[in-house]
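pls ignore typos typing on phone
2-phosphoglycolic acid + seq
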Amino acid sequence: MRKFVIGNWKMNGDALEVHEYVHELKTALEGMPCSVGVAVPFLYLPQLTALLGRIPVSVVAQDVSQFKGSGAYTGEISAAMLRDAGCEYVLIGHSERRQYFDEDEMVLQQKLLCACEAGLNPIYCVGEDLNQRLQGEFFQVLDKQLEALEAVRDHLPATVWVAYEPVWAIGTGKVASAEQIAEVHAFLATRLQEILPARCSARLLYGGSVKSANAREILALPGVDGVLVGSASLTVAELRRIIEEARAMA
Ligand code: PGA
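k done
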């Protein structure tokens, strides 16, 4: 199966950049079968969808409201609205959401449910911080984070995406070692097999300072089905190099 490469723009870019990016991406991916997703800020999702047209790149949202349906929730974007904007996937539980917006397992469980019910594929992000890593508590932390997924197990799609993103490796230039990634991915695969219903299968992404220089090594690790790329995804040339590494391994 092809490795999945997702670029997460976070709070970067503007309408002009989205336009130029898609134009460059189109040329860069010409004749290159690959599995790619791009997550731009909410505001630019419809533009991204329209510009991509038939280019086989998935539109990914960076977050979704925890509230079901529609209603008086000022500033919120519902799962149905994201579907309407052309989104196929949504990141849920990114460590920046957990850190800056205090999103806990209860909130994330609601977000997961909203996404699944609207037919969006959640990409559930988990990861320990530096202190938890140093204290050797990371398996417990990850286990706790998986509770939100377990709580909505009956609503999950057949393929369940989970991204392991150690907080200490995000935006720091510090990548987890091959051993650390392989160890956690093996742990997650085992836990997910226990947690998920038999009709579901889990696929795992790694994220945290992934760039073209380290993508090959990471993508080659057992249990790594793709990468979630932040800052390195902001330039098409760099993203393309990562996609090429992923392609070479498919
Ligand atoms: P980074 O971000 O690649 O800039 O470390 C990854 C992420 O937060 O998804």
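The CA atoms of residues 128 and 166 lie 5 Å apart. The chain has a mean pLDDT of 96. more later
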